[in-house]
Each structure stands twice: as structure tokens, then as C-alpha cells.
Write a structure and sequence with these properties.
- By secondary structure, this protein is of the alpha/beta class.
- The protein folds into 3 domains: 121 residues, Nitrogenase molybdenum iron protein domain (Rossmann fold); 97 residues, 3-Layer(aba) Sandwich (Rossmann fold), CATH 3.40.50.1980; 150 residues.
- The chain contains 17 helices and 14 strands.
- A 6-stranded mixed beta sheet has the order 1-12-11-10-13-14, sandwiched between helices. It has a 4-stranded parallel beta sheet with strand order 3-2-4-5, sandwiched between helices.
- The chain is globular and about 65 Å long.
Length: 447
Amino acid sequence: MLRRPGEPLSAPADDRAERGLPIGEAAYPVPFRQGLEYASPVRGTWNIVHTGMLIPGAHEIYVCAAGCLRGVVLTAAEMGAQERFSTVAVREHDLLDGDMEELVIEGVSDIIEKLPKRPPAVLVYTSCVHHFTGCDLDMIYRRLRERYPDIDFTDCYMNPIMRKSGLTPDQLMRARLYAGLHARPIRSDVVSIIGNDFPTDEDSDLMEILRGAGFTVREINSCRTYEEYQEMAESAYYISYYPSAAAGGKILEERLGGRHLYLPYSLDPDEIEANLGKLCEALGIACPDFAEKRAAVKEALAKTLELVGDTPIAIDYTYCPRPLSLARLLLDAGFAVERVYADSFTGEEKEDFAYLKAHYPQLLLFPTIHPKMRWSAQREPSNTLAVGQKAAYFTNTDRFVNIVEGGGMIGYEAILRTLELMRDAYLQPKDMRSLVQIKGWGCEGCL
């Protein structure tokens, strides 16, 4: 890893990676130095292959070096989507001969011609070598669209050099999911929820408000045909609540005209109600009374605490995008939250970070990708109650909540469902090592 002249080889926090860094001593938003990364054998979160498959009927084509292709090929095979996935291998002579554009155009065309059925959309994933060589991507897509006017081509990226600046590959992929939508007349009664790998739970506060007000709600996860997917372009509102989806919502607002509402995922009742109030104000409808929901949360917290008592609790970022919000909720209710596993924190977590730093300075933060974490997983089984796959792996516990990326939960329903899952995990241990190795947890539902 490149360093500035005179920069120390390690940060003080790096020496605490294995043992944990008290949040009272941690820096926001990145407590540990980022550099060489360790990948634990926890594979439940989705990647760009899984997410791209959400577009009905779309065919993915990866144009990369053979070594890079290995991982995405295995992903497609593991999710049983080989018929929707193809590759074009970039070799050394393609870099030296200067025919990269021709390779992409002819390689993609050859695949399309050999498919048993013409797909309505093709996602072409280029890689870092195309940027290093100054490949004319605009010309490539222009030629492909001229050659196949009946196909919607979307530029996608498998590019590690994008990870630390600008939009991340995850943000780009969630935005590109909707690049194929064609402009349509906007309907005032249609709302689309965007950017989630999992469909929003029907019994969530968000869905109850939208359905109760008579809105037609669309999500890419529930689209079964390409025409249903195109109907999302009729939306008067685009709602995102996952942090990585917000950028895509802004793009949709500018391109198609519907209004984007970002309602940040949270497990704080005050923030939940503020978000839902913002939604109701934008839609011009009355905001419901949440007194019963608050009472239900209070009762569920007490019920769960009575069951688990002083059992140590560990939380990680793969469970939901706001692990500190969950830690704050549980700590304030008297739970023994000891660990949070996360490598960095989003802007939405700044207030929670400051609150926990002031009120629970002993809470330990652990990274998940720091090289020293390859030795950090406990060898002996523990009695920890883990919320998230990585927390379960590093604490070596079979009592864990096996959900990734929020699992479609939002609002008060997310709190109540999380507490229910914690009680179930406490009473019903699972085979952690077998479960966390399943790649793209729940992704079979997108095929």
C-alpha cells in the first residue's frame, strides 16, 4: 500500500484490532487503518452478480482477466444462474495490441448471437484494465446499441480502484439497476422503493402507510417480467432507505422526474417517526399515531432482556446498515452489548457514534477486514448472542441472528423483528459454520 513520506507504518488503533478498541478512544468514521484487507469465510452478503440478477430477464456479461472472472463465475454457479451469465476473458495481447474496444464489442455480440433467447437487457461489467488503458467505453456502448436496438445495454463495473473514492461499486450497482427504465407518463398514485436486495416487508410501517393511502408500491424484487420492471418508471416518488441506494434515487429523480425521498434506516424510535412524518408530509396524507408501536417496542425490549439477561451481545455491520443504532437501543435498555464489528461508519451513524462514545466508552469496536483479524476468531465456542454473521463467526457462537443487509425490515417492525430473532437465536442455536459460508444469503429469491 502506498504511504505519504514520513507516514508511520501503523496507527495506534491497529495494535488493538485483535483485542478491540474502546469506542471512547476510537476515531470517527474510520477507527482502524485501511490497507491490505482480510476476507473472512463469511459470505452471506450480496455482491454485484447477485444484485444485477434482480432485473428480470437481464443477462450479465463480465469482461475481465481470467483471475478476476473466477469469483463471479463461482457466484453465478452457486446461485444457479449460469444461463444468465457469460464472460469475455481479457488476455495480455488485448492490452498490448490496442484492440480492447473491438474485444468488448465483438465478444459481447458473439455471446448475444449464441444465446437461445434474446434478452431484453444486457449488463456489461468492465474492469480496472479498461480504465488503465483508456478504453473508449462510450463508443463501445454506442456501437452495441446501434447493433442491437432491441436490447437495453447498461454499463456496470467490477472495478476495485473505485472503492475508496466517488461512488463505490455497491452504490453504482444499485444505481445501475434502474438505468434501463424508459421514461413514461408519471402516475401520482405509484411509488417505487429502490436499491434493496430484499423486498420490503409487507407488515412494515412504510408499507402499511403506503398501502393504506391507496398507493401502488413497486420494487424491483417483486418484478417478474421486464414489462413490470419498466412500470417502475411511472412512479411519482422513489423511496430509498438503504444508504448505498440514496445516490441512485437522486439519479432517477433527475432522469425520470419522480421525486426522491431518502428515509435513512434507523432503529431509533424518534428517527423512525421523523422519517415517516417526512414521508406523510411529502405524500400529503395524515401521519398515524405511533403510541402503540412505541409501547410494543418497550414491551419487547423488556421481554427479550428478561430472557437473555447479562448474556454478552455482539453486533456487526452485515446485519443492518446501522449497527451503532442497534447497539445504542440495546444498551439504553440494559442489554450487555460488548462488541460491534465494523470497519467504518456512515454519515447517518455520526450521532450514534458520539452518543456511545460519551455514554458507553467501554463498548469495543472490532474491524472485520484488518489483516490481524485472521487470527481473531475465537477457537473455543462462546455463549455470546450475535446479531449478524460476522459477529457470530468472530465470537464462535451458534446463537446468532442470521440476517444480512436488513432483510427487508424497516421502521418499528425492524426493532420488533430483531428482538424476536434475538429471542429465537438464544433459544435455538444454529450450525454457524455451515450457514455463514452460503454465498449471497437468500439470493435464490431473485431468480
